Amino acid sequence: xxxxxxxxRRSFFGMxxxxxxxxxxxxxxxxxxAAACPATAPAGKAVAVEGVGMAKGLDYVADAKSSKNAKHxxxxxxxxxxYYNDKKADGGxxxxxxxxxxxxxxxxxxxxxxxK
Length: 116
Description:
The protein has 116 residues and is an alpha+beta fold. The chain has a single domain (9-105), classed as Irregular (High-Potential Iron-Sulfur Protein, Chain A). The protein is built from two helices and two strands, in the order ααββ. Strands 1-2 form a two-stranded antiparallel ribbon. A hairpin with a 5-residue loop joins strand 1 and strand 2 (102-105).
């Protein structure tokens, strides 16, 4: 006796709900992998430097994982900050409003971080 697989309306919508639940997590992990820390700063751009000027006042670090600031939460980076202008990104760096439009790395962090 062969078992027929019949896709009825109820099972179809069950699969749609399951897929809709899983897809956002998959996309988030792919996006996180795509946002790898850049190796070098873009040439000819004003880049924020840890411990200098505004970067010092904002407790900026080029790698969010190295932040010792109590405000830092796991997963917070410049790439997901409201002030990071990713439309003008150049090789993993983009201008930051809080840093006077100096370029910051996508995996950096400062105490002005505000999630998009």
